[in-house]
Amino acid sequence: MRASTSLWPLVQRGLLGIISATSVGCASGPNQDTLVDELRVLATLATTPEAQPGERVGLQTLVVDPEQRGFDLLLWSCTFAGEQCVESLIGEGEPWAGAIVAEGSGESSGLFTSELDVNRQLEAFVGDEPLPILQTWALACEPGLCPAVELARAAPAPGTDDAKRLVKLLSDPFVMLEDLPLTGVSLGLRRLSVSTRAPEDRAQNPTLSLTGPGGAALPAEVAPEGEVDVLLTFDGARDDDRAVWLYTDAGGFLDASVGAPDADDVARTTYFAPAKPKERVNLWFIGVDGLGGVAMLSHQLAVSGG
Amino acid sequence: MTPTTPLLLLLAATSSARAGDPAPAQPQAEAPTPPAPAAPPPPATGPPSAGPRLPELLEPPVPAYPPAALAAGREAVVPLELGIDDKGFVIAVRVVEAVGEGFDEAATLAARGMRWAPAVDARGAPASAVVQYNMRFSAAALPVKVLEGTLREGGTRQVLGGVMVEALGPEGRRAFTETDEQGRFSFVGLPPGPWQVSVQVEPYEPRSQPVTLKDGVVVGVELYLTRDSRRVNLTASETIEVTDGRGAAAEVVERRLTADEIKYLPGSGGDVVKAVQNLPGIARAPLGTGQLIIRGTAPEDSLFFLDGSPIPLVFHFGGLTSVLNNDLIDEVRYLPGNYSVRYGRALGGVVDITTKSALPERSNGAVSVDIYQSTFFVQQRVNDRTAISASGRRSYIDAVLTPLLSSDTLTVQAPRYYDAQVQVIHEGADNAFYDVLFFMSDDEFRFLGADEDEVFAAFGDSFLRGRLRRLGRPGDGWQHESTIAFGPETREFQFGDISEAYEKRLLVSVRDELSRGLSADRPIGGRVGVDLLAGQDALLFDEARFGEPEEAEALRLSPGLYAEGTARIGRFTVQPGLRADGLIYDNGYSGWTLDPRVSAKAVVGASTVLKAAVGKYSGQPTLRQVDPESDGTQDLRFPRALQSSVGVLQPLGGRASVELTAFTSQLSELVVGREDRLRFFTGPPPVGPFDTGAYANDGVGFVYGVEGLIKYTGDRSIGLLSVTGSHSQRRDRPGEPTELFAYDQPLIVNGLWSQKLARNWRVGGRVRHSSGNPYTPVVNRVYDLESRAFAPVYGERSSARIDAFTSIDLRIDKTYTFKSWALETYLDIQNATFSKNIEVIGWNTDYSELDPVYSNPPLPVFGFKGTW
User: Fold this and answer.
1) Which of B837, B830, B775, B852 is nearest to B806 (CA)?
2) Judged by CB atoms within 8 Å, which residues 220-279 of A form the interface with B?
3) Which of A226, B135, B409, B783 is most buried, judging by how many CB atoms fall within 10 Å of its CB?
4) How far is the C-alpha of B825 from the C-alpha of B819, rounded, in Å?
5) What whole-number distance in Å separates Cα of residue A294 and Cα of residue A282?
6) How high is the pLDDT of residue B452?
7) N- to C-terminal Cα separation, chain A
8) Listed residue (A61, A24, A25) closest to A40, CA to CA
9) Span B401-406, mean pLDDT?
């Protein structure tokens, strides 16, 4: 069996990163990893990160299209059982249950809402221990690039070759991506846990609030190459992996993420505006608590004046 | 002393005799000749006079009186037979009846300086002749000493005994003498005037010193000879049969690099061990590390030895510089494959570093300083049979980088390494050589927090070894080698509180070998030996994201037995051998193997050597692979290789040679699996989808290739061109596709040239070209919306290749020789052409484009080395 992950490259890059970072002293400019400059599925927020069998979960998927070239979005879920999706095993030739297609509006970002019905039959397999067996996939493609989108949009009849082909594509997204171009395509994966725990015991999404220094609201305008200090208040479960990830479609943040916030749950960072004026710049803040919970905020400002 | 009247016994040399040829003995007729004439001689090539004429002595000889005989008041007459050419020069001297006490040698030397009017034949033409001459030594008539001196080696002040010194004076007068054991020499009876005192002896540059002799004055002179650096050459010799006192051996390809020969090669920073990487069969290791990637095998499949004992670490930080002082090393033997049964536990090749095993002629030392490190070496003769040496090295990169890289929140202890060696060598009365060596190495690299107890990242690699070695020579060509080495070794890594890993070993190695080499009159040889490793292995690999920690500890016993014979039948030599190896851990694992090997050579024509070999070679699984505590598999077998090679060696005149070798290696029972486990210490950094299955002997592979080596050794230049073409493939599991080996490099070319210039300057260059390693490309990516990281989607395994590596390295040396010491200065520039080569493949964080690790920019190393 072959797996696709290894820590070694991360360790290697970490060491090289330490060396390079220390070689140039403290970084003072924007982190390039915070700039989203191509089509990307940026986040999926579930109404609950830990669902019960039979429960309907609401999903919000954030897609960023900074070049505004337009895109189609294919959303589907996979109840992961061993090495396959349950959805691909139910009825040969049946279309993928719950797969939906949406279209971008031509804006630089879009928030798409969908629902996921958790298979009630999972009651037989899960208990009080949450199992991360639900995979929600979001595939954003520039129009015409992804056969899966076209197949799903065509809603092929059960038993047809197209229906079988669609199931094959969706059941192994890694294989599907091997035949897709690197640019103009973005595939995001979000896992949800399933348990039978009481609602008050289940993992919850954290909350995230956003202010400027001293509790003031973030400004709506910033000068080219200006800086905006950002304070993030994080409320929710504590975990070492808790962090807020920062993104924008112009300029950049000082940090790719701000890690475990201070004792007062306030994390700080700085946004650096681009050199050229821009009518609208999007800032996105994705908080993850390390336990499955996700919070999402956005802010828009104009880069103008001087 | 006065020369006596010569007796002419012969004439009648033929006019056809060539100048320089001693005249053949002819029927002799005794006839007295007069004493040395006072009148000028007729020109040797002057108009012929009628009738034959005997040679006439123009100048009486001025022999040096043997000091001991003079002190004892002895006198003597030495009868000589002199060959005189048709120019009147003495070209052959034979002592007719030796009288001893140094008179014979002194008479011979003096006779060579005699000048005669040549004989004339019946047609009046100058002719060669042979005469007899009685050289008389009479203390009563001893001429006055007019010139004395001492001859030493420049830079070391070592006296040079037994060296001929020539004095060339007015009107072409010549006199000779020889230095005694203390390097002293003297001339007597030379007339006043300007003279040149000259010495010409290898391996030194010719030296000439003008002096002016005066009546009643003894002129003193000290001559210092400078080693002729053009003689410091590279030799990469190949032999099929080694009879160098190590006993019988029959490698199809053995390439030797001697330390003195290669320290000036460009690109290796003067490191004699790293120079091996210029030879055929070795793929280029990424990041300039010293990993041995020999004939398409993994680095861990090849081994480094020190005098036949395995050593855990050869280079500081994987490739910066070797852990042994250059001055301890005699030669580096590189065996890329099909080597003797003396070596085992390796699927690939072997590099055996040989320390010096002879007493130094004198006490000596060296100190070197460059921009990264300093080293020292001192060796002291304790008595006639014993010498002791100490050497060491300390880097100071950290002293510069630590303050540069550290901040208020981070303390960087930049790479720091040091090593030390202490050696005692003794020549026993039993005709045996004893060698006690202690050596150690310590590498460390740490990133600390503001509080130094907070370790952010740390790496350490160290070992300590003690070794006792005895080389006995029972006689009749036999050699008995006994070695025991022992000591701990540790490799450890810590990455904050995220991960910790170490491998520790306490090892005892024992080798006892009896061997007998071939010689001109001994066509049968062989060796039999025991090669034992024992000790304790321990490991820890703890990283949460890799699952449960792996921790294991076990006692280990790895016995090896070997025997081989060598037989020469005419121009054909064959060497069959057999090696048995075992591995036993006290965790329940055990394994055995039996490896037969045979090699042969034949000398064809005048000097062409054909050679061929085939043999089985076995590696051994590691503790991690077999220990139950680390998810090991207890029933693993030894991985093995069936190596075969054929080659031809053709000398091209006396200065060049060409060698061509074709080889194959069929690999089987390779241990594969668990690529998902934390790994820091061995193998290439895994890139691509990983085999997460249990360890198993499922891997197979095949390697084939051709190696070519052309070398040239001239008077003032040396050159080497090595070319390797090869293909190395693997299949990890049955049913999986065959793919290229991670270090497959189809074409490797290394060209070196070093040129000696005037005034002890030397320049050299190295050109390298090697194919890039294959890698598995990333064709797409999935964005993990929780970890906020991209996961790669890989394409076909090993279907892409890194761009080829090219580089030009330069080196300039200048040596200054003083009376008592010498100073070498050098500038070694690697990648002088600013080539931007990819060392390790990598991608940016979203896998949208390659973000590899590139090779260093031009890296000049400037340094000094003083020797005495």
Assistant:
1) B837
2) 243, 245, 257
3) B135
4) 17
5) 19
6) 67
7) 58
8) A61
9) 73
